[in-house]
Write a structure and sequence with these properties.
4 copies of one chain form a homotetramer. In chain A, the strands form 5 sheets. In chain A, strands 2-21-18-23-16-15 form a 6-stranded antiparallel sheet. In chain A, strands 3-4-11-6-9-14 form a 6-stranded antiparallel sheet. With about 350 residues, chain A is α+β, with helices and mostly antiparallel strands. Chain A contains 6 helices and 24 strands. The first copy, chain A, has one domain: Jelly Rolls. Chain A starts with 10 loop residues before the first helix and ends in a 6-residue tail after the last strand. Chain A is globular, with a radius of gyration of 23 Å. Strand 13 of chain A pairs antiparallel with strand 15 of chain B, so a sheet runs across the interface.
Chain lengths: ~350, ~350, ~350, ~350
Amino acid sequence: MAKRSSIKASEEELKAYFADLAAQNLWPLWTLNQSKEPKSKAVPYIWHWRDLRPLAMRAAELVGTKEAERRVLVLSNPGTQWGAANTLFANIQVVLPGEVVRSHRHTNGALRFIIEGKIGYTVVDGQRYPMVPGDLVITPSWCWHDHANESDVPILWLDSLDAPLVRLLEVGFREDYPDEIQPPGEGNDNSQARYSSGGLRPAWEPAPSTPHTPMCRYPLEQAKAALDRLAAAEAGSPYDGIILEYTNPITGGPVMPTIGCYIQLLRPGEHTECHRHTSCVCYHVVEGSGYTMIDGQRLDWEEKDVFSVPAWAFHEHVNSSDRPAIVFSVTDIPVKRALGYYREQSSPSGRQ
Amino acid sequence: MAKRSSIKASEEELKAYFADLAAQNLWPLWTLNQSKEPKSKAVPYIWHWRDLRPLAMRAAELVGTKEAERRVLVLSNPGTQWGAANTLFANIQVVLPGEVVRSHRHTNGALRFIIEGKIGYTVVDGQRYPMVPGDLVITPSWCWHDHANESDVPILWLDSLDAPLVRLLEVGFREDYPDEIQPPGEGNDNSQARYSSGGLRPAWEPAPSTPHTPMCRYPLEQAKAALDRLAAAEAGSPYDGIILEYTNPITGGPVMPTIGCYIQLLRPGEHTECHRHTSCVCYHVVEGSGYTMIDGQRLDWEEKDVFSVPAWAFHEHVNSSDRPAIVFSVTDIPVKRALGYYREQSSPSGRQ
Amino acid sequence: MAKRSSIKASEEELKAYFADLAAQNLWPLWTLNQSKEPKSKAVPYIWHWRDLRPLAMRAAELVGTKEAERRVLVLSNPGTQWGAANTLFANIQVVLPGEVVRSHRHTNGALRFIIEGKIGYTVVDGQRYPMVPGDLVITPSWCWHDHANESDVPILWLDSLDAPLVRLLEVGFREDYPDEIQPPGEGNDNSQARYSSGGLRPAWEPAPSTPHTPMCRYPLEQAKAALDRLAAAEAGSPYDGIILEYTNPITGGPVMPTIGCYIQLLRPGEHTECHRHTSCVCYHVVEGSGYTMIDGQRLDWEEKDVFSVPAWAFHEHVNSSDRPAIVFSVTDIPVKRALGYYREQSSPSGRQ
Amino acid sequence: MAKRSSIKASEEELKAYFADLAAQNLWPLWTLNQSKEPKSKAVPYIWHWRDLRPLAMRAAELVGTKEAERRVLVLSNPGTQWGAANTLFANIQVVLPGEVVRSHRHTNGALRFIIEGKIGYTVVDGQRYPMVPGDLVITPSWCWHDHANESDVPILWLDSLDAPLVRLLEVGFREDYPDEIQPPGEGNDNSQARYSSGGLRPAWEPAPSTPHTPMCRYPLEQAKAALDRLAAAEAGSPYDGIILEYTNPITGGPVMPTIGCYIQLLRPGEHTECHRHTSCVCYHVVEGSGYTMIDGQRLDWEEKDVFSVPAWAFHEHVNSSDRPAIVFSVTDIPVKRALGYYREQSSPSGRQ
């Protein structure tokens, strides 16, 4: 049995000592209260589309592209006053008919999920991708990208980035493209033709070796078809119903090293089991309505709403309607996995 | 300058010495004539369907399933008298209406490409896969597999295995299943639903970690759609036109560690460039007609023919018809790549 | 040329609008000032051993193991008031003769570099490692570990952890071992015997597949011998002289997924080139003296000092003495690399 | 229950049918007798140094370097009349004082284990490696290599190559260097200095990414020290005693993709358990004496003997002397593993 020594220094002694430490830019670790498990500074929160849309449209009235190259509203978690989640932005951007969003690049990996509009495009490193509602469009770290709205109605999208992570890790670079937009390339992007058939791949090129997906656009139609096929045949995840990860078709890994993208189908009436994990998640409701219980708090959601589940918060989903709910989400699972920090736990006490 | 010594031993001395060596199970390496590049023992060869089909059907008249559990004709390369290529079998198998091919497993990795028939199935480790013409069905190394023809017409398929490689490497095991067939599982295989959407994958399970594809059936329809999409947009390979590799959707790698499977589209009139590589290839014509030049020899091919291109033989393909040709092929590229033996060369003198 | 619209909303309108946004937990991204490159909140700073040692020894007078299970002084960067660097702690711990530091585990990956003392030990998941000055001892994430001082003099060590990263990412778990210390295992650790010969590895076991090194102790003697061998033969790095990374002998990768450990030799009079990178570094001087220029600031260092170089700060090292300087360092390079955030740049204007 | 049809075709009918098949270069798979497990064509065999050495020296009397650039005796397995094992050569080469072996390269991966001599060197792609008895020297696939004996006594070495595998797979290329030898480089190789410390690696260069080890020489002294350290502390393998694999220090993998190299220590009196695996092995006795039981056959070995254990042959080793036996060996384990063909089995009936 090891000896546990106790020394009863006086409060004055300790106070003087701590002051000496501070004078040398030191502090005593043993005075730090260390908890047994993480508690995110972010809180469960939901932003309703009924509030978001008018405010986004109002931005379009108040600021032009000269004032705001990117007319983006940051969904700010009340717990952090920064992004929607600890490592993730999940913002709303609006682009008016005829507007062009000038080309730049940055360390931040980014993605768009198109909520509303007719037709626009994003150019990523010279490849031109169309954008229609339901599309997931990826603009990976340090790739040039510009956007345009070529229709006669506004385009609104969910604009998610790993910007809070980049800020925490102090690695943010950004650069403007020499010209306003990237020059027209050889035509529209062809990655859908190349990679959208699972288990088939062009053999005339070596597999692309970028750290991110070479297929920067994932249409909703294909995802919904896959969800429907699987919903007819499988139970899926106890915590998420039928849930698909958008993957890099070359490696099977996540679309970017810092953000995982998912789409899930909750069957009418489905009430999932409760769990938690060390990744934060931002959800965007594509179709349907229901609610999510997060650490005892109920967030009711409808189409196009956005809500945030903090890391290590228990959560369970309920589709309270009589038609399938389709929910898109972004997480930092790839970060937590790469660093050995991912952990998951079923609720020992069942549903909330 | 190093000295090059010459010693003029008499022929008798050398003869006696070589005999002494032989007596000790030794031989002198310097008497071996070593060539500068490989020369396969296999030769370019084609088996025409017009010959293969009647002989396969004749087998069905002459031997029952008691005599020949697997009624398979081995396409035997005239240069080796063994398989169609140095490391690959590309055989023809026939299964009559109502017949069942009993379950077994073996070291050999195998695949079927269905040529003719209505409907059958293959069970692979308890998963039941339908088989219709054009399907590629994989039965990986050491997986239990049985087949059945549930229709009223014969099924014929190309039956390709790495059996010659297994024989060269002396690693062949085989085992019969305790029962005739594997018990009915929980229903039909679901891997198409799970993995056939490129860039989307079920997130409720960890990615399967088998050394082979978890999707054991690849329907022709999907491959043709992908070929057509790409033919409309890209030039493809100078040597192979629009060519797709069937891949393991989890890793992006080959379907098995020892056999690579490909399907290609040659446009009407297309005449590819000439090249060679250290992998042997067996081709099976799915649709169309044309010819292939192999080391100066012309092989004219039509639908359902099978032909063999030896390793390091120059070859170029010609679609001499006015409609697209679709050609399936198997190679040992994964073997050559894994061992660092893959090498490729354009013909320095252009087409043959 | 795309149109750049300008809308001159009044200040009142904007103010009211921003208030509306805030009421909905939103803020306008375009008001954020985004810099072109990262600027760490941490600043260049040095803690001298002449200050650290007395304060550490004073802790041993004022608090016992009952008050402070781990008697650790946190080196607190003046820019952040937290750890020595943005993602890293580089603390000083003191253990008195006969003291035992009770067993626990935590998400934090940790390491010790022994500065002073005779002999102690660390037990990591049941393996007992001796600790003498110069040793690098690794206690990876979520491995049980306890320490003891079995000599008659205090042991002091550099105690480095990824704790600030764990805090930023909100993934910290901790747990006390059921007993005071881990039970005596089958004897002393044998990983030095197993893995310390480069290019040789026990073949009777599969290679360990932990995400961290299976060799938890790296003695200084071996590192110095390697540094001396290389210093006699090679120029080494223009920025760091002869510098070695401590690696996982099984994979060649870093010792832990979140911390890279290095040891370097600067020749007498050596003045390295100037560069910067997106990783922060904490240095500990093992032997010798010199100075480091960091973004124009000169930090003079002597034996046992600890200093911090923030991410993306230009730095160059000078050994101003007439004997070799040996410097140990920890970085978050593995984190930045895993996430695709690592970037390095030579100073375009040469030395500072 | 599936129907098993039997068709009693007459012998004449079948004979005629088989002739028809042969005429079309086909044969009936069902007539092939397929065994349940592999049976190597190679047989257990030993070549004694007392026989090998005089015959090697006799070669030096009978043929000069003009007649035999490489004076190599092929150890020819009586079962195959080709190399010592199915996929491996294990030959004996002799180089006389002052002789130079001209530079060339080939697909074959090769290695030397120096048996006798004073000092020579091998140049591999411009790097000069000394060669003294006990050294393992690697000349990987397609690397230029030349040798010289710079001493006043002959050098003899074990010369092992994957040449039989290259022949089976029909991938052999070879090329002579434009000059007699490679030009003197910048001095002696430095890979020992760089990589021989386990868990430490130069950080000023990216890790070499060749498919083979960047450290082409492994001295015996280091291996013996590691064997002794481990023999003092661990039981080792039940089948092989204390056995180390020579590894690529960058990846922890085998030294070449086609050959695994091992060195083992059998304690005085040690009698290992019996097992078999799908890899063939060639052993070379460095020190000591004993015997090996292989499928019931006893091969007694002494210093410098070479013996061959075929794939899937049961074998167990006995050190029948009173001092440690040190045995070097080469296998094709990396080939069998890469292709998914490696399998291992303990003898169910114990020792032979």
